[in-house]
Amino acid sequence: MLYICLLLSVQLTAGNDTLIEESIKTVVITDRITDISVERLIDSSNSIKSFNLSLADLLGRSSLAYVKTYYPGGLNSVSIKGSGASHSNLLWDGIPLNSAMNGQPDYFLIPASFFDRISISSGALARGIGGDVHLGSSSEWNTNRVSAALSYGSFNTQKANFNFLLSSERISWRSALSYTASDNNFSYVDVFAPNNPAVVLQNANYHSLHLKEGVTIRHRKNIFDFSTWLSFANRQIPPIMGAALNAVEHQKDQTTRFKLNWSHFGESSHFDATIAYFNEWNFYRLNENIASNHRLHSYHSTIGFFKRLKDVLLENTLTYNFTKANSTDLKSDNEQHELQLLSGLKWNMSNRSLFQAGYRFGLKNDETTPFAPFVSYSFNPYENYLSSLNLQAGRKYKIPTLNDQFWTPGGNPLLNIEKAWHIDLIANWRSHHKAHKIDLNFNPYIKWIDNLIIWAPRNGFWTPDNLKSIVKRGVTMDLKATVFLSNDMKFSAYSSHTYTRATSTASFIEEDASIGKQLLYVPKYQTNSGVSSGWREWSIGLDMSYISQRFNSSDNTSSVPSILHLDANLIKTLKFRDQQLSMRLGVNNILNRQHQSIALRPMPGRNYEVSILYNIEKLKK
User: Fold this and answer.
1) Integer-rounded Cα radius of gyration of the chain
2) Residue 308 reports pLDDT greater than 60
3) Is pLDDT of 4 > 50?
4) Which helix (H) or strand (E) holds 56?
5) Which SS3 state, helix, strand or coil, does residue 90 take?
6) Can you tell me the distance from the alpha carbon of 13 to that of 477, in angstroms, rounded to the nearest whole number?
7) Cβ atoms within 10 Å, residue 290
8) What is residue 400's predicted lDDT score, i.e. its pLDDT?
9) CA-to-CA distance for 19 and 381, rounded, in angstroms?
10) At 423, is the secondary structure helix, strand, or coil?
11) Does an H or E element contain 480, and which?
12) What value does the mean pLDDT take over residues 236-241?
C-alpha cells in the first residue's frame, strides 16, 4: 500500500537569470517544476575556456562552490555554502552520481564538455542539504555539429575532447570522447622537510579516458532517450609534504553507466520515466601489503507525472534507488534501498508573483525518512524593472552512507538520519539594454543541521556517530556587467563573493573544543573576480580567485594558509561561414604562489597551457 501511495514526487531546479513573469509564461509541461531564484548557471561547454576542463575545474570558478583538491588529477570534492562534500548531490538528468559508499562523487572524473547545461542549486528547495549540481544535455534536431579541442600544458599535461552531433527531424545521435593525462612533475618547496628543499612531485602521473554515447528518438507525442557513459582512470598518489616517497600508492577507477528515458506529452500533462544502471569499480593500493577493492552495482528508477490546471502546475514523482556493494572494507550486510516521494505545485498567482510548495517523504531500507516540507514565494516588486525577490524555507535530510554503516572496523548500522532546516532570501536585479547588461544576485541564508555524523576514535579505531548539531549562515553575492563599446568591442567584468560562518552549537563529545569554532575546511571568505575585453576576433582576460584560510583542526588551532590565484588568457577566434577556430594561450598562477588546497598536499606554481578548438555546425532546412 505504501508503494502505491508513494507514486508522487517533485524535483526542483532553478535559474537566476529568468524573470518571474517570463518563467510563468514559458513553463511548459516538458519542464519539471522550476525554482527561478537560486540556480547558478555555469559557463557552457562550447567555450574554449571551459571545453577541456573537468567539472571540478569549472565549478571552481564559482565562489558558491569550494573545490577541495588533494593533488592535480586526484580526488576532487565540492562543498556548497559550507556543507560537507557528501551533503551536495551531483545529478545527471535527476539521477544521483554520488557514490553510495562515501556519499560523494569525484568531480575530476566528470568531463565538463559532456554537458551543455551545468548549474548549481543551493537554496532550500534543492534536494541535498548543501545543494545540487545539475548536469544535462539538450536535444537538438536537424543539426550536424563536430567539435574538437586539444590542449597541451606544463608538466606534459595533455587534454583532448571530441563532440559529435548528427540529427534529423526525428533521430539525434550524440557522441563525446575525453582524454586527460599528465606527468604532474611540478616543483615545490617542501616546508615540512629539513632545510625546506625544493623538490619535484613524484609518483603523481595520471590518465583518464571517458566515452559518452546517446540516441534520442521522437515519435508523435513520445521522446525516447538512451545514454551510455564509460570512464577509465589510473592515478598515482604522491606522498604528502615531509614524507618519504611511497612509489606504490595508486588507485584505478572504472565506471559503466546506462540510462533510458521515456517522455510522453499530452495537451496539459506529461509523463516521464527513467531507469538507470551504474557499475563502479575502484581499486586502491597503499603499499605492497595493503590494498582495497570495491565494486558497486546501483539501480535507479524515476516515474513522474506532471499536470497543468489553469495557473497551477502539479508534479508528482517516485524515485527508487538500490545499491549493492562488494568491498574488502565492508561487512557482509552492504545493501541499501531508498524510496523517495516528492510532491509539489507551482502556482502563478499573478504576472508578478509565484508560489511553490511541496514535500519529500520516503523509506530507507525498513526505516521511514523524515517528512520534509518546503515552500517558496517569489515576486517582482517593480513592474518596470527586471527584478525579483524570493523567500524560501524547507526541511532536508541525508541518510548514512554504506561506509558509515558497514565499514570494517568501525561501521555503525545504528546511525540516525541527518536532519536540516534551511531558509533562503534571494534578490535578483537585471538591467539589459543595447549598450550594456548588468546582473546582480544577493542571497543571505541560514541552515541548522542535527544528528551530524562525525567519525571519532573509540576502542582503538575510528567509528561514526551522530555527535553534533551545527548552524551555517552566510551570504553570497554575484555581479556581472558587460558594456558594448561598439559593434566590434566589448568589456566585461564579474565578481562573485561568499561569506560563510559554519560552527558547532552542540556536541555529545565531552569537553568538545569545537563548540563555536569554524568547521573543518570551510573558508569564511571566497572571491572570484575577473575582467575581459573583446575586439573583433581577439579577447583577453584576467581572473582572480581568493580563498581564506581553512582550519584543519576542530578547535581551530591549526589552519591551511589562504590562496590567491591570478590567471590570464589570450584568445583568437576565426570564423568562416559555418566553421569556427579558436586558439588560446593561458597562464595559471601568474604570481607563482605555493599553496595547498588540502594540508600537506602541494599544488603547482606558475604553469602554461595552449589550446585549440575547432567547431563546425550545419543546420538542415
Assistant:
1) 24
2) yes
3) no
4) helix 55-59
5) strand
6) 19
7) 10
8) 95
9) 12
10) strand
11) strand 461-484
12) 96
In SS3 terms, 322-368 reads as: EEEEEECCECCCCEEEEEEEEEEEEEEEECCEEEEEEEEEEEECCEE
Residue 555 has a CB neighbour count (10 Å cut-off) of 11
- Which of the four pLDDT bands, split at 50, 70 and 90, describes residue 21? very low
Q: Residue 297 and residue 276: Cα distance in Å, rounded?
A: 11
Q: Is the dihedral of CA 110, 209, 239, 405 positive or negative?
A: positive
Grid coordinates given for 397: 535530510
Q: What is the DSSP string of 128-165?
A: SSSEEEEEE-----SEEEEEEEEEEEGGGEEEEEEEEE
- Find the farthest-apart pair of alpha carbons in the chain and give their distance in angstroms, rounded: 75
Domain holding 413: CATH number? 2.40.170.20
Residue of 426, 405, 427, 430 lying closest to 416 (CA atoms): 405
Q: What are 300's three cell numbers?
A: 535507479
Q: CA 429, CA 479: separation in Å to the nearest integer? A: 10
427 against 37, higher pLDDT? 427
349: left (phi over 0), alpha (psi -120 to 50) or beta: alpha
8-state DSSP, 15 = -
Sequential DSSP letters for 264-330: EE-SSEEEEEEEEEEEEEEEEESSSS-EEEEEEEEEEEEEEEEEEETTEEEEEEEEEEEEEEEETTB
Per-residue pLDDT, averaged over 435-444, amounts to 94
Per-residue model confidence as pLDDT tens digits over 148-163: 999 999 999 999 999 9
Number of domains observed in the structure of the chain: 1
- In angstroms, the Cα distances linking 407 to 76, 259, 296, 458 are 22, 29, 14, 14
pLDDT score, position 383 = 64
Whether the pLDDT of residue 5 is over 90: the answer is no
The pairing of strands 418-432 and 95-96 is: unpaired
Range of the domain at 589: 2-619
Considering the entire predicted model, what is its pTM? Answer: 0.92
Contact indicator for 338, 320 with CB cutoff of 8 Å = yes
Q: How confident is the model at residue 558 (pLDDT cuts 50, 70, 90)?
A: very high
Residue 510 pLDDT: 84
Question: In the prediction, which pLDDT does 432 show?
Answer: 87
Contact 55, 110 (CB under 8 A): yes
Q: How many angstroms separate the CA atoms of 298 and 90, rounded?
A: 15
- Extract the C-alpha cell encoding 131: 545543494
